[in-house]
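Posted in: Structural Biology > Protein-Ligand Complexes

Title: Requesting predicted complex, heme C in pocket

I'd be grateful if someone could produce the 3D structure tokens for the following input. Sequence and ligand are given below.
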Amino acid sequence: MRLFTKTIAKTSRTLAASIATIVLSGLMSSTMAADIPTTYENSCAACHNSGALGAIKKGDSAAWNKLKQQKGMSALVNSVKSGMIQMPAGGLCSDCSDEDYRKLIDYMSE
Ligand code: HEC
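-- Reply #1 --
Done. Output follows.
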């Protein structure tokens, strides 16, 4: 029974995510590779979801806002582009623009 409930919950989450993706991709212009949540999942989440290797976690608003205040958004974008100690250059996103990185950083700060 518990397993069943879990499966249902998982399925409806996946379904909701797919619907969101379809709705979003319809709204996005064709020049954009992917929406921000998808890009996040495909690139940044590997480290920023769990805080692996000491990465600032997604959703840790306090830490992100402090970093934004201290360094400023353009410095943060440059950090991702050129890489840091543990973070690979580009943060595993090969086709992200500066604007994408800004949005991804805001997305992680929420
Ligand atoms: C392989 C793991 C990894 C991936 C993938 C990754 N990061 Fe990071 N990120 C880190 C780590 C670890 C740090 C902390 C600094 C360090 O040790 O390199 C960091 C720090 C940052 C910072 C702070 C930079 C600064 O100047 O302090 C930003 C912004 C950031 N990541 C954005 C991103 C974005 C956006 C993506 C996806 C496009 C991404 N990261 C993908 C591991 C990763």
